[in-house]
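Reviewers asked in the last cycle whether our approach scales beyond single polypeptides. To address this, we selected a multi-component target totalling 724 residues and predicted its structure end to end. The input consisted of the following lines:
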Amino acid sequence: MLPLTAIVLLPLIGFLVNGLAGRRLGHRFVSIIGCGLPLLAFAVAVHCCLDLTASLGAARVENLYTWADVDGHQFAIGFWFDRLSAVMTLIVTGVGSAIHVYSTGYMKDDPGYARYFAYLNLFLFFMLLLVLGRSLLVCFVGWEGVGLASYLLIGFWFEDPDKARAGKKAFITNRVGDAGFLLGMFLLYHGLGTLDLDHVQAVFAAGAPAALSGELIALLLFIGATGKSAQIPLHVWLPDAMAGPTPVSALIHAATMVTAGVYLIARLHGIYEHAPLTSELIAAIGLLTALIAATVAVVQTDIKKVLAWSTISQLGYMFLALGVGAYGAAVFHLYTHAFFKACLFLGAGSVIHALGGEQDIRRMGGLARRIPVTFATFAIATAAIAGLPPLAGFFSKDEILWYAFASERGAPLLWAVAAATAALSAFYMFRLLWLTFLTPSRMAAQTAEHVHESPPAMTGVLVLLAAFSVVAGFVALPQFLEPLLPVPAIHAALAGYQTPLLCASVALALAGLAAAVLVYGRGPARAERLAAHFPALHRLLSGGYYVDEFYALTVTRPILWLAARVFLRGGDQRLIDGTLNGLAALFQRAAGRLSRVQAGALQLYVLLAGLGIAACVAWALHDV
Amino acid sequence: MDSTQLLLALSIALFVLGLTGVIIRRNALVMLMCMELMVNAVVLSLVTFAARMASASGAVLALLIFVVAAAEIAIAIPIVLLLVRQRRTLDVGAYSSLKG
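The resulting structure, written as structure tokens, was:
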């Protein structure tokens, strides 16, 4: 029995069955295959976890297949299951299965139903390859594969060119990061001769190898992580990725795939412990991303865009934790975030479903009584992400804030900015809650008429995820992971501040809530007046600081110019086509001239033949 | 200058005469005659060398060449006659459409 292999391959089977034969099998069969196999994988994962706890954390290894054997360098496909992989696998299969079930309701009438489930299963397969791979190479295959699945699902409704373009943008932006990942991997292999994560970890645990530039590897792998996890400067694809179906946003662009970068760095934390400069950079980038994304989220009007920017912001928190050495806290936040953000996205999906496709929160309001289950779960998840005790987000966010303040790589300044961002998060999340559910209705009459609560397949999943958003924080995940991910040392002088900081962060979350109620409690009118006072700032935030435009100007347009002018016109059309066409024309013209000689004039022929013979004789005799 | 050299010089002179005739004359019959001249120039050089080497086979070969030349002219003259019947002229320029 190979349980880990089974976990990975079950979704792949689902992909093959639904992808190849889904159209002919009918909705019911597609749903059973599409949800059943991930659920089965989840069951196997639970079983493996129980084994893991029974064996006190001894990692399970499955070496499956030797992929390549080059001059004695072996590249094996194998799986590695320790506590960190266990947490990730449970999130991926658990939340993943829940979202599959939700999708049976959400995508019910879509003509691409089978294709959707095939892609979703394909995503799970690659994600599991990524979190279970023993070698960094296997992880990389998963890493690229989830990018592919993400591309396919963002552009799921590819008839709409905007959505297809969003898929391309996500894929291409990710490729930039992937280049960093690849280079880091090459350097690591060059230095250590192995890509097995446990070996790499063991080498770095014994002290930084002198032959290796740990900082450079750390930096390159972090570049890879910024791409996948939408950190500045590669965050631009995530808001556009909302073009995909909402459950996809929940699964891929909130709960699982975007956390791959966090997983990667936590998994290779040995490298980062010996790379203080890169760690500082990670903390700075994470904090900056958290703050910037939170400010942008405040002014977004698309319900999914608010959540997308909020995801970027929360990922920034995780990177902040990684940067200050609190790897366990980062994974803890990853884990709680998976529940409440999935719940929020699915709740948003339920709202969109109820309103028949409306996504603009300016045309919502008053939905609390019309769709009560969605409202209740959305409210719980909002409170969780805002960090209200005793919900899940409170514990994990507080842990991150604490380490940002007190750990040896932390600083009070980091805490201050992160805490301000936390208040901002509470503000924009409650703004969303109020504008969507609580303020008086601003819906079009026609939309308001057919508002309906979602089917049980959807609300059931919402309730489940909301329940986890409440209780997930009580799992002492950092302690569970401590044998793998060491807890950073605390500045002795700062150790006493834990309780005051705790109170401060709760106060800040409540302040965010109060501000949101104050500004948005009666509808968006007051906020619009406020925005009218600062039109430039409002435009800047709505446009996401114009990063897209900046990239278009500095990267896309020069590259397009280079491609069109230099390579297409200069290289392809002039140089290559020009050379071939020119040669052909030359021979054609020469042949035209020569053909005039053959005019049937016998004397000319004889003369030329005579001259030719004379020339041959002269040439033969010239050096006699 | 011995007789061999004289004979070879004569041979060359005949050959050049024939070649020049072929190139500059447009009358088909004259061109044929000039070609005969060229053949005979070659045969002359052949027998000159054969005599010098005291070899009988050269003389035999010269007789064979006469036979071949006679056969060739026996075919060439009727061709010229047929052509003249078509166009009523001996000018080879008139037959340039035969270039193929």
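The first helix of chain B runs from residue 3 to 24. We regard this as preliminary and will revisit it once experimental data from Aim 1 are available.
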